[in-house]
Amino acid sequence: MQPKHPSESLTTLTDLVLPSETNPLNNLFGGELLARMDRAASIAARRHSRRITVTASVNHVAFNRSIPLGSVVTIEAKISRSFKSSMEIFLDVWIEDRESGSKTKANEAIYTFVAVDETGRPVEVPPVIPETDLEQERFDAALRRKQLSLVLAGKMKPAEATELKALFI
Ligand SMILES: CC(C)(COP(=O)(O)OP(=O)(O)OC[C@H]1O[C@@H](n2cnc3c(N)ncnc32)[C@H](O)[C@@H]1OP(=O)(O)O)[C@@H](O)C(=O)NCCC(=O)NCCS
User: Which Gene Ontology MF annotations are present (predicted)?
Assistant: First the structure.
């Protein structure tokens, strides 16, 4: 299969925070942000694989900063690494200052998607060739994160997670 660069899957979603999407402190609901990130990640996974894709796992979410009502929120989703049928999608969330237009990183997340056929069976996806230093860093650590996710889901024995174990030795 022809390898692809992460930039080929880049997906950018920009939207406002409306009153119906906020908590009592007038900040964006975590669940609303998760849904927006899921949508962006799904498009990135589809762009990489050109197949039907399903969310297999949410591996990491850090709600580092609250996002106030009225904010302009931009989510950037890009594949960091693919395996056989699964793809790790990295998401960076930015909020835009109304006056200066400068962007501040608010949150980040990592989702795993799997490409499937019309019957829901996993199918192979193209490999990823990172181009930038950040893409390479995310690519290099993706196998450890996959192993951790599989161990937590009870789909891999900790003893088999060799790359993950190497972190602690
Ligand atoms: C995701 C799904 C297709 C995996 O199917 P499966 O029968 O477990 O298939 P496999 O065991 O062959 O796993 C397929 C791939 O997913 C990966 N995977 C499965 N669970 C995973 C998890 N929790 N974390 C990371 N990767 C996971 C496997 O490692 C494998 O990757 P690889 O092919 O790149 O090596 C299946 O569980 C599914 O359809 N789940 C529902 C998806 C869905 O509806 N999502 C929306 C939720 S509302």
Answer: long-chain fatty acyl-CoA hydrolase activity
